[in-house]
Fold:
Amino acid sequence: MPDTWLRESVEPRANVDAVVRYGYFWWLASSGVGDASTPWIGAFGNGGQRLFVLPELELIVVVTAGNYNQPENWRTPTAVLTQFVLPALAAGPRE
Structure:
């Protein structure tokens, strides 16, 4: 039963906008670098707390922040994922 619930919970249930969808308690979208786009499953908390699960990359990104009750608190965790983590992975390992 738990594996069934997990699969069901990350199925899109509502469209939030043109990019973001919502499952059962999970935000669903994708982010990318260049032409490559990677889907993610997210949990969002107040203050910029974010959990991004990127199954295709076998990666979890956690951002903790303290920008509580601010309407723009999503910007920092989004930047961590899209401007730092994903570009670093796209660049490949350093020698």
About this structure: The helical segments are 2-9, 75-91. The mean pLDDT is 92.
